[in-house]
Amino acid sequence: MGQPLDELALLRTVIGALGEAIIVTSPELDPPGPRIQYVNPAFTRLTGYASHEVLGQTPRIFQGPDTDRAFLDDLRAALVAGRSFRGEAINYRKDGTEYVVEWLITPVLEDGRVAHWVAVQRDVTELRRSQEQRRRLAAEVNHRVNNNLAAMQSVAAQTARKAETAAEFKDAFQERLRALARVHRLLAGRCWAGIPLGELAEAQVAPHLGGKVGRLQASGPEVSLCPGAAVALGMALSELAANAADHGALSATGGCVHLRWEIEARTDGDRLLLRWAEEGGPPVRPPPGRGFGSRLVERGLPQELQAEARLLFEPSGLRCEIDVPLDTLVGAAR
Question: What is the DSSP letter of 319?
């Protein structure tokens, strides 16, 4: 026969090995409330308090300014009724940092009366943060889908207005959809957190370079564009590149595009100055009217980004000048 099982010692060992924090308190609920009688090692890892620092204290020492009072009222109502209670609250560690704790509090009865409360606590801060990020991402994606459906309807309508044949409409519309898709792939690859302007320009102009290196010369400081600004500027750059490939510098063997941008400090806020300049192409003459690309640059960018934009049809090559508030590009513009 083996030695008699010491159930109390076994129970202490098991509780000490648990990953969840365990707190045992006295039964009082009236102020100042129950007193802490036991905590396990996981409690110290969770809160930063050693057991001797909390024994005899009330659990109120873990509460703080962001602890939900309504949650505490619900907790008290359940305990007064002698019921178990499950919930979440913001608590505070010894160093003052807050965390989200999931609680399960259960009464221990002796002769039909509550003798102790046993609380099992688990840190769910990272879980809740991850869930909130997924919720925000889903909301952002939903917002973008709605915006893009509206944008595609506008693109389709304006493309149809200038197209003379169904084939012409199909080609132009598909190219604009591809331009929008390129921006979206870049945004999705960065979890919709923003795109560097240089990376956006390369993605939108590259399909029109004919596979030749050096035809796009882009330079400027690092600027990370928010999603709304990335879509607006990305579509404008694609229209400029498509026009250059059809009629401008990129239609000629030795033609190239210079894209430069800089940040200028002004009293009313920093501005991004972006310059598109073509050279080496055929002589340029102002068109008799404004097409989709021209309207997108000269009307769309002011509307979407509060920009000042103009196209200059100089004989040596098309130039485009865009002057836009920096906070519109990097902020929460939609």
Answer: E
* 3-24 pLDDT per residue, tens: 444 555 555 665 665 668 888 9
CA-based nearest residue to 216, from 277, 282, 283, 297:
277
CA distances, 242 to each of 225, 228, 292 (Å): 22, 21, 12
> Could you give the CA distance from residue 119 to residue 86 in angstroms, rounded to a whole number?
10
Q: Using an 8 Å Cβ cutoff, are 285 and 294 in contact? A: no
Please tell me the number of Cα atoms within 13 Å of 50 on its side-chain side. 2
Question: pLDDT, tens digit, for every residue of 243-284?
Answer: 999 889 999 988 999 999 999 999 989 999 999 999 999 998
The one-letter amino acid at 43: F
Give the separation between CA 184 and CA 229, rounded to whole angstroms: 12
**Which domains are present in the chain?**
7-123 (3.30.450.20), 151-330 (3.30.565.10)
pLDDT at 165 over 90: no
Beta strands in the chain, from DSSP E residues, in sequence order = 21-25, 36-39, 85-92, 98-110, 113-123, 195-196, 216-219, 224-225, 256-264, 271-279, 308-314, 317-325
